[in-house]
Amino acid sequence: MIRFMTRMAGDPNWPGGAGRMLGAAWQRTADLLWPPVCGACEAPTTAHGQLCSECWDRVRFIGAPQCAACGLPFPHELGKGALCGGCARARPRIDRARAAFVYDEASKPMILAFKHGDRSDLLPALVGHLLRPGRVLLEDADLIVPVPLHWRRMLRRRFNQSALLANGLAARTGVPSWPDLLVRVKPTRTQGGLGRQGRIRNVAGAFRVRERHLVAVAGKRVLLIDDVATTGATLDAAARALLKAGAAAVDALTIARVIGPSI
């Protein structure tokens, strides 16, 4: 309850006037009852949802220069529109994929805390981090669509972290979020521990666009949201379903990505 109220107090949709006063009062109370700690190591911080200075220095942000398609960072500038080797050989279904951080031992604790550790107070900061690499994608997007969970996993986890991120981005940008546009029709096993081909097979045919949303997605540029891109198999399977339903193009935005083969 404390973390939920803390997140709501920092939500840009929190009502004005008395609502802002209530939010500020709650924030002060929450700071006393539950002092803010680092999203990665839980060292004391000055605000909820932030990283301490040591963890901030360790996190590797992703930015230009990078592959124009999958967003793989380059060691030096290769020119506008340059592609990495993987994307040059076979252009991905996803037009442009971007991520805020490299997924490594520095960023992993924060992401796992948000995903599995009930750290919903991290949401405003994570949305802020997504706005940096996602600025151009969001400017071009007609719809924001989170990668859905299968209903069985949703019952166990109680929330979809990708939907929280998508709704947070919608609140900050005005681009509509459609959390129920995609449905996960296949109860896939977790992708952890699977190789690239295993991940591709695991999510093949796992998604479809709900029939009532086929008109809404037709001809639109869709921005897919997920927490981490590893091989990109999940994002690719979701993009396949969107393109099959008539989407004009699909981009993808994640908190972090594994630096490895092209996604």
Which topology does CATH recognise? Rossmann fold
Order of adjacent strands in the largest pleated sheet: 1-6-5-2
Silhouette: globular
- The fraction of residues assigned to DSSP E strands is 5-15%
Radius of gyration based on Cα positions: 19 Å
Query: End-to-end distance, in Å?
Result: 38 Å
Number of strands: 6
Q: Percentage of helical residues?
A: 40-55%
Return residue spans where pLDDT drops below 50 for at least 5 consecutive residues.
Answer: 1-14
The CATH architecture classification is 3-Layer(aba) Sandwich
How many discrete structural domains? 1
Give the gist of this structure.
The protein is of the alpha/beta class and 263 residues long. It has helices at residues 2-9, 18-33, 53-58, 85-89, 108-116, 123-140, 151-157, 161-173, 196-203, 214-217, 233-244; strands at residues 97-102, 143-146, 182-184, 207-209, 221-229, 249-257. The protein starts with a helix and ends in a 6-residue tail after the last strand.
What tags apply to this protein structure?
single chain; 11 helices; alpha/beta; 4-stranded parallel beta sheet; Rossmann fold; 263 residues; globular; disordered N terminus; 6 strands
